[in-house]
Amino acid sequence: MEPILKVRNLQTGYGDLRVVWDVSFDVYPGQVTALLGRNGAGKTSTLRALSGLNKVASGTVEMDGADITGVPAHKRVRQGMAYVQEGKRVFHKQTVEQNLLLGGYTRKVKRSELMESVESMYEMFPILGEKRSLPAGSMSGGQQQMLAIGAALMAQPRLLLLDEPSGGLAPVIVGEVMDRVQQLKETGLAVLLVEQAVEAAMSVADHVTVLDIGKVVLDADAKDIDDLAVLKDAYFGRV
């Protein structure tokens, strides 16, 4: 099986500030690649570079074998990439249904076709169907996270970048979010998951890449990591 995403020797940052120095990994269809690391390791900066929001200073990003390193963010969406940023980013004053419809805007299809996708989101996330007419800002944090994921899925991506979906959520809600991630990968979707909740990430991960100070310090199949102490050593620079 060929990877849908290939990242090689990625360097990126913010202006003259370099945050990511040398990152390489692959993401495969129907699998979850967990990108882990302590705060400041470069995880979010990596996602922003992959999505086109941050400029790549060096290295390459390939999707489906095509070099997209310099492709603008909106064109990456049309090529099948979706990015759910950290912080449950939804349009608070718009209704749940309006948020979902906005998520499918780039598809340029008839409203009837978009509504079919909206209904499929209600099947995957029943709480969104129950609250379809309410402002998104009136929902709980966990419900807003479900909506943010649903809106990203409205673009019908083949690769989903998820940044800290468990951030600020109660443990029971984190479990529900991870259940949805598991469900998504079973549809054949490729998922790149950045997560601080290590045990939650490991419950759905097929592959694990750990970053520290902008570099890869551990890259392994999740099934080969039978002791979380290995991850702790990677986090604290003992690998």
How would the blueprint of this fold be written?
Layout: E1 5-14, E2 17-27, E3 32-36, H1 43-51, E4 56-63, E5 66-67, H2 73-78, E6 81-84, H3 96-103, H4 111-124, H5 126-130, H6 141-153, E7 159-163, H7 171-185, E8 190-194, H8 198-202, E9 207-212, E10 215-221, H9 228-235
Parallel strand pairs: 3-8, 3-9, 6-7, 7-8
Antiparallel strand pairs: 1-2, 1-4, 4-5, 9-10
Q: How would you portray this structure in words?
A:
α7 links the parallel β7 and β8 (190-194). The chain is built from 9 helices and 10 strands. Strands 6-7-8-3-9-10 form a 6-stranded mixed sheet, with helices on both faces. A 4-stranded antiparallel sheet has the order 2-1-4-5, with helices on one face. The mean pLDDT is 92. The protein is 35% helix and 26% strand. With 239 residues, it is α/β, with parallel strands linked by helices. It has helices spanning 43-51, 73-78, 96-103, 111-124, 126-130, 141-153, 171-185, 198-202, 228-235; strands at 5-14, 17-27, 32-36, 56-63, 66-67, 81-84, 159-163, 190-194, 207-212, 215-221.
